[in-house]
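Throughout our pipeline, every protein is held as a single compact record rather than as scattered files. The record that follows is passed on verbatim for readers who wish to inspect the format:
___
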Amino acid sequence: MEIKIFDTKSELGQNAARDAARIINEAIDERDAAYVIAATGASQFEFLDALAQETIAWNKVVFFHLDEYVGLAESHPASFRRYLKERVVSRIHPRTFHFLDGEADDADDECRRVGDLIAQQTIDVAFVGIGENGHLAFNDPPADFETEDPYLVVNLDDACRQQQVGEGWFKSLAEVPAQAISMSIRQILKSRHILCIAPDRRKAEAVRAAVEFEVSPMHPASILQLHERVTLYLDRESSSLLK
């Protein structure tokens, strides 16, 4: 795991975007296409803004959705489909973006539908974050490290749901959905590169657990220690508890 620490979130985002652009462009040069997993959340704002400014043949890039709430309308401010359409698709116009439909009649069927699509591809780079509770995607502790299914329906714990309130996506805990569709841990680890963007003081405990604790389902992001090409992008605050 390579760790890069920056003074500001803007600097962090710009550097992560440059690294992402290099990986994407190398994949396009290699096989005339790049396959990317996109994350959401407040931690990704500066990174996605910077990435949209990079010189990339976006019409050769295919995106896959990392996670989505079950039962939340796309019109809701917290919808990840809405987030990605506004911050990614409308700005760069990729070849394809395979969204997870959180309003599908059957969430398990939706997992299988998008899972079948991603299983056909080699993912060049996954953009991920770390939750305040240490989750990776919406795999809250104790995370399932064993399932080979690309996507699964997960129950969201109170710490995860409270984070969404704290970030301003919902007005109260009662409004936060209890379930989500999440990319599985093993599917994330199949990516050739993983860029983990995790700024802010509120992430410091989770970052320390991911980097310095033993790999454990109780600290889901610690699994990143086992991947050969992970870069962790931190600011001074999120890295403040690292030894």
Remarks:
- The chain has seven helices and ten strands.
- The domain at 2-235 is CATH 3.40.50.1360 (Rossmann fold).
- The chain has one domain: 2-235.
